[in-house]
Amino acid sequence: MANKKVKILGICGSSRRMTTDRAMEEVLEAIKEFDWVETEYVHLADYTLRHCTGCMACFGINAPADEPWHCYRFPEDQKGLIIPKMMESDGIILGTPVYGCGATALLRMLIEMTPFGYYTFTKHAGAMRHKTLGVVTVGGADIEGQETTGMDLWRWGLRLGMMPVACPPTRNDTLPVASVSGAFLSTVDSKEQYGRESVTKEGTRTVPPTQGSRNMRSCRNLGREMVVATTAVKLGLQTMRDRGMEIPPTRPYKYYSVKYKSGSYVDKLMKEGKVEAKTFK
Ligand SMILES: Cc1cc2nc3c(=O)[nH]c(=O)nc-3n(C[C@H](O)[C@H](O)[C@H](O)COP(=O)(O)O)c2cc1C
After folding, report:
1. Is the pLDDT of residue 144 over 90?
2. Residues 6+ apart with CB under 8 A from 246
3. Which residue's CA is the closest to the ligand 1 atom numbered 31?
4. How do strand 91-97 and strand 255-256 relate by DSSP bridges?
């Protein structure tokens, strides 16, 4: 692939440019070794995000059909800037510090309300289907939520039809590694608990600095496996299309039985005859 044909987006859910940012850097650097892959990086600290209040103004039953997706409740919310980047990507890596055994509120504010769910009635429902999903979780303690936080993030993606990617040991970064499922990292052995290099070999206080080097190996392995999985899925889908093998299209509903506003996306689907109203009309 001479041209860059595969795009992988990294999203960091920390409010700081510290350990998670450093770990994401390692993952993305490993990806950049593959010349057909383009990377983009979004740090959520650069965006104003607000929590979802459940007003559902952005749902396809309410929002004007032809407006780009955005948060109507909080006009200052900038999820609308990130969502197109997610849609343009073939694979996404979510990175988060472990806060209270879960993802940060900052990351949750992005992922708890995206228009990709099959129940949102939006034109973007299903847009995450067949994209790969890698996870990086960084905890200050050894086993205090890294894995369960990663599983929560995978769960979020599974619901949208995404494909979780592991980080098996590779030729360049063999065992022992921090983890082989997602990149589940710890900074408990670091020289400086909350420093940027805490997650690295250089930032580890023990001799030999096993924790940091294992962390970084897992980051690089995740990057490589994201490349392989994302490329394989993208080429596989393209081959299926080229050979006329059917990929069943996403179609959340045949009938709508919810109230919808005039001018909304659902109204548009009704008028185009793509869905039928069951109860309300
Ligand atoms: C509010 C808060 C809650 C935390 N909760 C956990 C936790 O449940 N488990 C854990 O291992 N580390 C926990 N930590 C430690 C952070 O996950 C750890 O320091 C991480 O490296 C911070 O990432 P950052 O440097 O990218 O901000 C917590 C830190 C903070 C500030």
Report:
1. yes
2. 240
3. 99
4. unpaired
Stretch 2-7: mean pLDDT: 76
Give residues (CB < 6 A) around ligand 1. Answer: 14, 16, 18-21, 97-101, 138-141, 144-145, 187, 194
Residue holding tokens 């990130």? 82
End-to-end CA distance of the chain: 51
- If phi over 0 gives left and psi between -120 and 50 gives alpha, with beta otherwise, what is residue 266? alpha
Domains and CATH numbers, the chain: 6-250 (3.40.50.360), 254-281 (no CATH)
For 86-99, b where at least 16 C-beta lie within 10 A, e where not — what string? bbebbbbbbbbbbb
The three-point CA angle 268-270-273 to 5° equals: 110
Position in ligand 1 atom list of the atom nearest CA 22: 26
CA–CA separation, 67 and 221 (whole Å): 40
CA angle 37, 222, 225 (to 5 degrees): 60
Residue 70 pLDDT grade (very low, low, confident, very high; cuts 50, 70, 90): very high
Q: CB–CB of 172/207 below 8 Å?
A: no
The H or E element that residue 233 is part of is helix 210-242
Using the mean position of ligand 1's atoms as its centre, give its distance from the Cα of residue 58 in Å. 32
Give the model confidence (pLDDT) of 172-219 as tens digits.
999 999 999 999 999 999 999 789 999 999 999 999 999 999 999 999
* Paired sense of beta strands 276-277 and 132-139, if any: unpaired
Q: For residues 56 and 37, what is the distance between their CA atoms, to the nearest angstrom?
A: 36
The DSSP annotation for 103-171 comes to: --HHHHHHHTT-TTSTTS-STTTTTTTT-EEEEEEEESSSSSSHHHHHHHHHHHHHHTT-EE-----BT
